[in-house]
Specification:
The longest helix has 17 residues. It contains 10 helices and 28 strands. The strands form 8 sheets. Strands 14, 16, 17, 18, 19, 20, 21 and 22 form an 8-stranded antiparallel beta sheet that branches. The protein has a 5-stranded mixed beta sheet with strand order 7-6-1-2-9. It has a 3-stranded antiparallel beta sheet with strand order 10-11-12, with no helix packed on it. The chain is an alpha+beta fold. A hairpin with a 4-residue loop joins strand 20 and strand 21. It folds into 3 domains: 108 residues, Beta Barrel (Cathepsin D, subunit A, domain 1), CATH 2.40.70; 179 residues, 2',3'-cyclic nucleotide 3'-phosphodiesterase fold (Alpha-Beta Complex); 150 residues, Roll (HIV Type 1 Reverse Transcriptase, Chain A, domain 1). It comes from Gasterosteus aculeatus aculeatus (three-spined stickleback). This is Peptidase A2 domain-containing protein. One of its GO terms (biological process) is proteolysis.
């Protein structure tokens, strides 16, 4: 038994190298994914897969998804953790020795019970939100010639393009799949076995390519590894060294492929440096060797491509009319509906409050706003017995001003509709803990889209530069158009 800390809480777990997934029998935040399993009873079932949660085991800190089921009598540490964290298990009579990557060891007693629940995948998993990634992690990267070369060229990289280290350790990605690939998994397991028995074979590292997307080194795979490389259509074997600041690791494979295929390389003043004008890319002469350790990881499907739109984004946007998008601060829509009629309380007489003097910067600060709303048809000139003052206020960090219309006196004499405005706190509390994706839509000038009846416009008159204007749409600050 070992102690695994999950989200700050300690759990006693049994090591089970026969279990594909680590399992916990207490509730965890669920993802939308489930895994078909066959329990000890032989009955099929589907267990939920949790979201990735922070874990700590001795000196190891990592994020991990767990199968969650109260039916499992004991928490299990399965192959997913044992393999991804490079745990070595040595089994002897009455004892299992666990060796961690830093060399520390933990001795565990073998279970005395002969029965425990076995789990296996029944058929293809349903992994909608996660991807399976197979890669060869560079062994002892900090001691390699490649690392030393990158260190020497580092100052030039910083001058050329803003870059940052990738989130993952240096590795060569061999395959990426959004669904379980049983056939590839079988081949990969064979590679892992061969590496454990005979050691990790070295591969050659060739030229280092430097582009706007980042810095990466091309890899010359052995014939055995080349058979397992499944990304040749869009990528070339490579090790990502740096990525563009704010960029994505997924762009590095196509960049290296373009560099390998380029034929317009020309020498520079540095004999080790060539330039491709067609790709706006540099190539650094380099030859060394590294040993890739075969690993398989279950990662978020957006891992390494966090800033990329869905591949069907442009097709989906075609369905939206151009009028859906605002083209400027005064560009507003118009809802096809009957104009709103505002009722006044019995006995109401027109309210006239003269405009108090404004500073020159206030007058100039809303001039473009007034002109834009006039052109958009939101404002119109008028002569009205009603008048209430405006008070432009500066926008934070901007030279412009926001026009604020003081309609408090008008709001006191109208009959409100008492529409219920949704409480954002209530709405947010209704969102379950399993929700991970949120969309924020800014409805630009929302109430300016609502037409106002002609007979209800006079009460919203105001004065600007000695002229009266009023609204043809619901004004901001009115009791039934709250912000």
């Amino acid at each position: 038994m070992v102690t695994l800390t999950i989200k700050g809480r300690d759990y006693r777990c049994m090591l089970d190298s026969g279990a594909r997934y680590s399992t916990i029998n207490t509730p965890q935040p669920p993802s939308r994914n489930t895994v078909p399993v066959i329990g000890f009873s032989g009955q099929s079932d589907e267990w939920p897969l949790s979201i990735r949660v922070p874990c700590k085991w001795k000196s190891l800190c990592f994020d991990q998804s767990f199968l969650v089921s109260t039916a499992c009598p004991i928490n299990l540490v399965g192959r997913d953790i044992l393999c991804s964290q490079n745990i070595i298990m040595q089994m002897t009579k009455g004892c299992i020795t666990v060796t961690f990557p830093d060399g520390t060891q933990q001795r565990c007693a073998t279970p005395h019970s002969y029965g425990h629940q076995l789990l296996q995948a029944e058929v293809q998993q349903t992994l909608n939100d996660e991807a399976e990634v197979w890669w060869g992690r560079v062994e002892d990267y900090d001691r390699t010639v490649l690392h030393e070369t990158v260190r020497r060229w580092g100052p030039w990289f910083k001058v050329l393009h803003p870059t940052e280290p990738p989130a993952d350790p240096p590795h060569c990605t061999m395959n990426y799949s959004l669904s379980h690939d049983e056939n590839y998994d079988t081949l990969w397991s064979g590679l892992e076995f061969e590496s454990e028995v005979h050691g990790h074979p070295a591969v050659k590292v060739r030229e280092i390519y430097v582009g706007k997307q980042g810095v990466a080194a091309a890899v010359e795979l052995t014939s055995e590894l080349q058979v397992l490389y499944a990304l040749q259509e869009t990528s070339a074997p490579h090790i990502t060294l740096l990525i563009q600041s704010g960029g994505e690791a997924k762009n590095m494979g196509p960049m290296v492929k373009a560099g390998v295929d380029a034929t317009d390389w020309v020498p520079t003043q540095n004999v080790n440096l060539h330039y491709s004008q067609a790709n706006d890319m540099y190539r650094i002469a380099h030859t060394s060797e590294v040993k890739p350790i075969p690993e398989k990881h279950l990662l978020s499907r957006t891992h390494g491509r966090e800033n990329t739109d869905h591949e069907n984004t442009q097709l989906m946007l075609v369905d939206f009319p151009d009028t859906f998008w605002t083209k400027g601060g005064a560009d507003v829509g118009l809802i096809p509906m009957a104009p709103v009629v505002i009722e006044l309380k019995t006995g109401t007489v027109p309210i006239y409050r003269p405009q108090y003097p404004l500073r020159e910067e206030q007058i100039a600060g809303i001039e473009k706003t007034i002109e834009g709303l006039l052109q958009a048809g939101v404002l119109e000139r008028t002569e009205s017995p009603w008048n209430t003052p405006i008070n432009p206020v500066p926008k934070p960090g901007k030279p412009d001003y926001r026009m604020v219309h003081d309609l408090r006196l008008v709001n006191k004499v109208v009959v409100p509709t008492h529409y219920d405005t949704p409480n954002p706190y209530t709405m947010l509390n209704a969102i379950g803990p399993d929700k991970r994706w949120f969309t924020c839509i800014d409805l630009a000038n929302a109430f300016f889209c609502v037409p106002l009846a002609v007979r209800s416009r006079q009460m919203f008159a105001f004065t600007y530069k000695g002229r009266q204007y009023t609204y043809t749409r619901l004004p901001q600050g009115y009791v039934d158009s709250p912000s």
